[in-house]
Amino acid sequence: MTELTARAVLLDMDGTLVNSDAVVERCWRRWAVGVGLDPEVVLGVVHGRQGHESMALLLPERSMEENLADNAEMLVQETNDTEGVVPVPGAAALLAALNGLPHALVTSANVPLMRTRMSASGLPLPDVLVTAESVSASKPHPEGFLKGAAELGFSPQECVVFEDAPAGIAAAHAAGMRVVGVGPRAATGPLTPAVTVRDLEQVLLTADADTGLLRLAFRH
Fold first, then answer.
1. Per-residue pLDDT tens digits for 59-81
2. Catalytic site residue 12?
3. CATH superfamily, region 2-20+85-218
4. Mind telling me which InterPro entries this protein's record contains (predicted)?
C-alpha cells in the first residue's frame, strides 16, 4: 500500500470532491457552438482553469473584457444548473476524516458556484477556502495553492494536494507540493502525480495524535 505523509491537505473541488462534468459539458458545449469552436477542443482546455483564462487560450485574439463578460454569464449558468452534480465516491468520508485537521479547499470556482456545488453534493465546506475571488492568477499558476498553505500555516513541502486536472496538477507542482491525482484526467497531462487514484474511496487518512502528522494510504 502506497503512503504519503503531510502536515496539511489542499483539495480541489470540481473533479476531485465534486463530479460536475455533466454541467461543465453542457455549458461549455453551448459556449463553444456560439463562438464557432469545436466543443471537444474546448472541453480539453477548460477543466481546472477559471473560465476567462480558458477563453483567452481558446480565442487569443479576443479582448479580456469580452472574456470576462462571457465568463460572468457562464458562472451564472453553471451556478443555476445542478443537474448531475454528485460527490466523487469517497469525498464525504475523506472530508469527515479531515474534520479538525489542517485542510483547505482551493478551487477555480467563485464563491457562489463553490457553495452551490458543495451543497448539491451534500459535502461540508472546510474552514479555509481559496476561490477565484482570492487570487489574481488562475491555475496552472501556483498562487491558489500557495495561499492555501500560507493560510493554514504550513510550507508547500508540508502539503499534499488532491487534484484531477492537468492545470491544477501543474499548479501544485509549481508550488512545490506533492500531488494525488484523482480520476482519469489526472493521467492526461505532462506532469505525473506522486500517486493516482480512481476516486477517493481508495484513500485512507489517519492522523498521529501526538505529532499531528497526517498519513495518507492508498488502496490499489
1. 999 999 999 999 999 999 999 99
2. yes
3. HAD superfamily/HAD-like (3.40.50.1000)
4. HAD-like_sf, HAD-like_SPP, HAD-SF_hydro_IA, HAD_sf, PGP-like_dom2
* Residue 21 CA neighbour count, 13 Å, CB half: 13
127 given a catalytic annotation: no
The 10s digit of each residue's pLDDT in 128-150 is 999 999 999 999 999 999 999 99
Residue that is written with C-alpha cell 498553505 in the block: 149
Distance CA 183, CA 148 (A): 22
Type of residue numbered 47: H
All cell numbers assigned to 107: 478551487
Cα angle for residues 97, 130, 185 (degrees, 5° grid): 70
Of 12, 21, 70, 164, which one is the catalytic site residue? 12
Which of the 8 DSSP states describes residue 187?
Answer: G
Q: What percent of the chain has pLDDT over 70?
A: 100
- Single-letter code of the amino acid located at 14: D
Q: Please report which residue ranges of the chain form alpha helices under DSSP H.
A: 21-35, 39-46, 51-58, 64-80, 91-98, 111-120, 143-152, 166-174
CA distance linking residue 219 with residue 127, whole number of Å:
28
- The yes-or-no verdict on residue 57 having pLDDT over 90 is yes
Which listed residue (14, 21, 70, 164) is catalytic? 14
Q: How far apart are CA 15 and CA 110, in angstroms?
A: 16
Residue 24 has pLDDT above 90, yes or no: yes
